[in-house]
Amino acid sequence: MVHYLFNSIANAGVMVANNIDRDRSSVLFLDRDGIIIKDVGHISKKSDVELVPGIDQLLQRSRDAGMLTVVVTNQSSLARGIISLTEYIEITNHMIDLLGNSMLDMIIASFYHPAFSQSHCNSSWRKPGSGMFLYALGIFNLEVDKCMMIGDRSTDIIAAEGIGIKNNYLLNTSEYPNEINGVEITSRCHLSPARIVNSLDLVLFDHE
Ligand SMILES: [Mg+2]
After folding, report:
1. Residue 121 CA, ligand 1 centroid: distance in Å
2. CATH architecture of the domain covering 4-202
3. For residue 201, how many other CB atoms are within 10 A of its CB?
4. Pairing with 115, which of 67, 71, 75, 203 sits 20 to 30 Å away (CA)?
5. What are the extents of the domains in the chain?
6. Helix, strand, or coil (residue 203)
7. pLDDT tens track for 184-207
8. Residues 206, 35, 83, CA angle at the centre, nearest 5°?
């Protein structure tokens, strides 16, 4: 049975599984809303949590590819006072349970928002800043070239590119139809184009 420990950090929170295989040198980074669970705006209760179709198979395939799975999510609803830290942890635990407990190694959340947070500590953790990715780099012995990011907004891709991740996917969702243009423009300016896919089963891992 996997257990998760919650660490409170200024303007952020990190949930860590107790069975992480630290020998793994690559991470599949994932946005939360729109990639793991459906994006329904500011989620305030467990009953709002619904998995995105195909996410469980995707996480299993990343496990088979030898990758760690790390969620990197902006959750300014805490700074906005929409949910409490206790409610955030309940929602996160419910998401973990829906996925079958052992599919995520770490869930990093930035609660920061420039208009609502009282302190600017760790403000770079909010995407498009790369602070959450840098935190993971500090914990694991990662080879950035082997890491991947899946998001549904251009800010997800920019944040991943900030630490040199070149293998990026943008899931085309009905919530953010204009993000494709944003990613195409920003990718042309950065490292390599993000691959745009219409479903999670089109994300490919190295050995596939
Ligand atoms: Mg999203």
Report:
1. 23
2. 3-Layer(aba) Sandwich (3.40)
3. 12
4. 71
5. 4-202
6. coil
7. 655 555 556 788 899 999 999 986
8. 140
